[in-house]
Amino acid sequence: MDLQWMAWTWPTALFFAAIALILAAMTAWEIASPTVARRGFLPMETTRGDRLFIGLLGSAYIHLAWLALGDASLWIAFGIAIVWMAVVMRLG
Fold it and tell me: CA geometry: angle at 34 spanning 78 and 55, to 5°?
């Protein structure tokens, strides 16, 4: 199988490895301590997995909006996305 067309770089590989580690950690956490749906500031009851998905999706949109609307450093968008993810996971 030839994967040369995929243009894997270290940042890309690290990104996907981090997502895989997050999913593995969430699975282990769920096995050790089953989640209970709760209601936070989001307009629905959510579990930890729901909040993880919503946080990751929101982080992707933050980065896409940042790229579309400005040319400042992407690290700023990353910082905003980290804060967003923390708020959703804790209070969502």
Answer: 20
pLDDT at 11 over 90: no
Q: What is the span of the domain harbouring residue 36?
A: 4-91
Task: Count CB neighbours of 2 within 10 A.
Answer: 5
Q: Is 73 helix (H, G, I), strand (E, B) or coil?
A: coil
Our count of domains for the chain comes to 1
Phi, psi for residue 18 in degrees, rounded to 5: -65, -40
pLDDT tens for residues 15-36?
Answer: 899 999 999 999 999 999 999 9
Give a three-class secondary structure readout of 21-44: HHHHHHHHHHHHCCCCCEECCCCC
